[in-house]
Amino acid sequence: MTSFWEQDTLQSVQETKRCGKSAAASLSEKTDEELAVLLQNDVQEALDILVLRYKDALLNFIFRFLGNMELSRDVLQETFIRLWEKRSLYRSCGRFSTWIYTIAANLARSELRRPSRRLLVPVIQHDAEGEEYEIPLRDTEPLPDRVADTEFRYRRIQEALLALPVVFREAVILCDIQELAYEEIAAIIGQPIGTVKSRINRGRAMLRSMLRDIYD
Amino acid sequence: MTHTPIRNDPREGTENADPRLLHDLRNMPKVTAPPSFMDEVRARIAEREKSGHARKKYASTSRLVLTLTGTVAVVYLCVLFFRGNDSPPSPQRNSPSIEAPEAPPRETGTPISPSGSLPGRATEDASRRAVDNAGSTSTSPQVNDEHKPNVSPSPQIEGTSVTRAIGKDTMADEHDARGTRQETFRNVEFELEYTPAQYKDAAPESHGKARISGLPLDSTKTDTSKNGTGDTPVRKPR
Q: Whole-model pTM above 0.80?
C-alpha cells in the first residue's frame, strides 16, 4: 500500500515522463528521499540526479579512506551500481544520505580487507590541475622549512589518516572531513553515538601525535 | 535541492582537539569525480543487468533441476519406505502356534548335493519358509512338535551347521540337554554345510544326506517311501 506522499511522487513521475525535459528539471528540486522512491519505481533519471549530488562527496570520503584514486573510483561506481540494484531495499523512513554512505563505507572496508589490494596503498594527492602525485610514505623527519607549506601539510595529514586504525579513520573522516552529524555517523558505522564520539576523539588524538612535527 | 550535510556543533567534543588540525581536516582539498563518471555508471549498470539476467536464468534452471532431483529422491525414498512396510508380514512371526503350511507328509528330507552343501537357492527359501512357519528355529532347524511330521532323530541334522546367518534376530540363547549351545532366531536366512565325515557312525542310508524337518522335498529326486520309516529320504538309485 503506497502512502499519500508516495502517490504524489508517482504522479510527478508520470508528469515527468509526459513533459520530458522540463519535468526532468523539476526532479532535481526533489529531496533525496523522494528521488529514492522514484528510483524504486525504475525512474533512471532519479539515479542520474542522485549520482550528481553524491559523487563528489562520496569520492572524497572513499579517497580519504583508501588513499588510492583509481580504487576509489571503482568503489564509487560500485556504490551507485549497488544503489540501483538494491533500490527496493531502501525504506523511506530513513535518511537517504545515511543509506548511501553506509553502502560506500561497507564497500570501502571490503576493499581494504582484500589482501591483494591492501599492499597497494600509495598516498596520492591531487594538485590544483588535477594531476596525481604520490606522497613518499617515509617522511618522518620534520622539515621545518616546509611546515608552513599548506600542500605539504595536507599530504602529511592524508598519510597520517591512512596510518590510523580503520575504525578511527572512518569516524574522523566522516566527522571532520565529510562533516556529518554524529547520529548519521552512528547509523553509517552501526555503532552507538557514544562509541562514535569516543572513536572520533581517539582518532584525533592519534592524528595529533602523528603530526607533532607540524602542529608543535 | 542539493545535499547539505548537517554540521555538528563545532564546540562539541573538540575540547581536547587541536583547532589547527580540525581546521586543516575540514579544509582538505576535495577530490571530484570526472565528468564521464555518469556514463561509466550507466554503462556498468547496463552491463551488470545483462549479466544479471543471464545469471538469473542460470539460477532458475539450476533451481529447477535441484527441485526435480530432490522430488525424485524423496519419492524414491517414500516408495522404498512404504514398500518395506507394506510387504505382508509373516503371520507366524509373532504367533508361533499358527499351523505350518501343509507339506507332503512323506517328503521331509532334503537331498544333499555331491559337494556336501544343500542344493540351490530353492532349498534356502524352503528352509526359511520353514523357519518362518515354525515361528522360531535353531541351529538345527525344526518345527514345533505338534506340526512335526514323523522325523527321525537327529543324525541327519547334526551333520549340518549354520555357516552364515543373514539378518538374524536372536530371540534366545540357551543350551540344550547335551550342552550344545542353541540360538533361537527370527527371520533367519542361513546356509547349511554338510560334512560327510561326521556321519561315519550314522546309519549307512543316511550318509551324504541332511534333512531339515518339515521341508517339502523335491519328489523328482528322492524317494521317501522305501526306507522303512517313511521319513528318511533315500536317493533314487542311478
A: no
